[in-house]
Amino acid sequence: MIFDRFDAKAILKIPLSRRQVQDKMVQMHCRNGKYMVKSGYHVARMLARDTNGREESSEQRADHQVWNRLWQLRVPSKIKVFGWRACLNIFPSKVNLVRRQILKEDRCGLCERCPKSVIHALGECSVAQDVWAGSTARIQKCVGVKEDFLQLFQFMMSKLSEEELKAFLVQ
Q1: 40 and 63: one domain?
Q2: Can you give the pLDDT at residue 76?
Q3: What is Dmax (Cα atoms) for the chain?
């Protein structure tokens, strides 16, 4: 048996053409009938949404807003990639290298007190804070109680204008 009963019934329901035309392969959900990874991705998301019985979570929508805002900023691509990598916590920080078992020690080499995470290196470290304090820019890195750079960036998105947000990433 090539097909199970369910598939066989579905196949038998397909109406045959009365015209004598050559069959051809056509991908559903593609405008031109040709498969593209992008359309496959959208179909996979649609199927996942259907099987879960719900839409994206508010957290996924918030992340989507972050990525849209980040990629639309008029800054050099390397700044966007830096922000993206910081938000995803994928820099080779000491904390991440210890997690991957590349290093054994995660302490910051500058302050020698805290684990050196992305958020620590960019603003929590007392040495980094001294550097930012010497900046004449209106916007200074303020980490405060944010657990990671994604939370900090979301907070900054809600408080800063487009120009200020660009300055925040570039500084």
Answers
A1: no
A2: 93
A3: 80
Beta bridge partners of 42: none
Phi and psi, residue 122, nearest 5°? -85, -10
Of the candidates 166, 6, 160, 1, the one whose C-alpha atom is nearest the C-alpha of residue 80 is: 166
Burial, 75: exposed, middle or buried (Cβ in 10 Å; 0-12, 13-18, 19+)? middle
Residue 144 lies in domain: 58-170
Within 13 Å, how many C-alpha atoms sit on residue 161's CB side?
4
What parts of the chain have a pLDDT lower than 70? 1, 26, 28, 50-62, 136-146
- Single out the residue in 36, 52, 68 at which a domain terminates: 52
Report which of 100, 97, 93 is spatially closest to residue 119, judged by C-alpha positions: 93
Q: How many structural domains comprise the chain?
A: 2
- The amino acid occupying position 68 is N
Asked whether residue 68 falls in the same domain as residue 87, the answer is yes
- Residues 94 and 156 both lie in one domain: yes
User: Of 15, 36, 52, which marks where a domain is finished?
Assistant: 52
What was the pLDDT predicted at 58?
Answer: 46
CA pseudo-torsion sign 106, 145, 67, 40: positive
Copy the structure tokens of residue 117.
Answer: 């995470």
Neighbours of 148 (CB within 10 A): 16
